[in-house]
Amino acid sequence: MSSIALPRTVPDIRREPTQDHGLSLTAPRVLVVEDEMTVAMLIEDMVGELAYEVAGVVTRLEDAMALIDSDSFDFAMLDVHLNGKTVFPFAAELQLREIPFLFATAYGPRGIPAEFQGYQVLQKPFGPVELRRALMGLGGR
User: Fold this and answer.
1) pLDDT for residue 3
2) Would the pLDDT of 96 be above 80?
3) Taking a C-beta distance cutoff of 8 angstroms, is the pair 102, 127 a contact?
4) For burial by CB atoms within 10 Å, which of 42, 61, 96, 114 has the most?
5) Is residue 1 part of a domain?
6) What is the full DSSP assignment across 92-130?
7) Would you say 82 and 60 are in contact if contact means Cβ atoms under 8 Å apart?
C-alpha cells in the first residue's frame, strides 16, 4: 500500500485584497443647481430613477460656490438663471477644476456664452431619456 505525504501546515487560502482597478460600484453623484423648487424636485426624482445619486440641490449661486471644493459631487447640472444671477461664475470654477457639467435651460444653446459653447445644453422641458443621454455624455455610465 502506498502513502501520500500531506503538508504539515495548511496553506493560507484566504483571499488577498483585490487591487483597485479604477472601477467604482457607487452611483455617480450629481449636484443640481436649480432655483425653481418644483423643477428641482422633478430633476431629483428623474436622476434617482436613472440610478444616479443626487449629491444635493442648491438654489443660489453662493451656495453652489461654497461647494466647489467639497468633493461631494462628480457632475453638476446647472440652470442658467438663479434668482436674478447667472450660473456662469460657478461654471467657470467647474471648468478650471475639470469637473464635468451641463447646462439645463429653456433658452437652449443661444443662452450660453461663447466660452461655454462646447458644453452640453439640455433644453427644458426634458424627460428621463434626454436626461439619461446627457448624464451619460458627462461620463456617468
Assistant:
1) 54
2) yes
3) no
4) 61
5) no
6) HHHHHHT--EEEEETTGGGGS-GGGTTS-EEESS--HHH
7) yes
Lookup: cell for 55: 449629491
Place of cell 478650471: 96
Beta strands in 1-141 (DSSP E): 29-33, 53-58, 75-79, 81-82, 85-86, 101-105, 121-123
The identity of residue 6, as a single letter, is: L
Measured distance between the N- and C-terminal CA atoms of the chain, rounded to whole angstroms: 62
Q: What is the pTM of this model?
A: 0.80
Length of the chain: 141
User: Residue 69's domain is classified under what CATH number?
Assistant: 3.40.50.2300
Domain range for residue 122? 29-137
Which residue do the cell numbers 467639497 mark? 70
Whole-number pLDDT of residue 12: 45
Residue 66 belongs to a domain: yes
- Work out how many domains the chain is built from and give that number: 1
* Cα gap 85→80, rounded to integer Å: 8
The answer to whether residue 9 sits within a structural domain is no
> What is the mean pLDDT of the segment spanning 20-46?
86
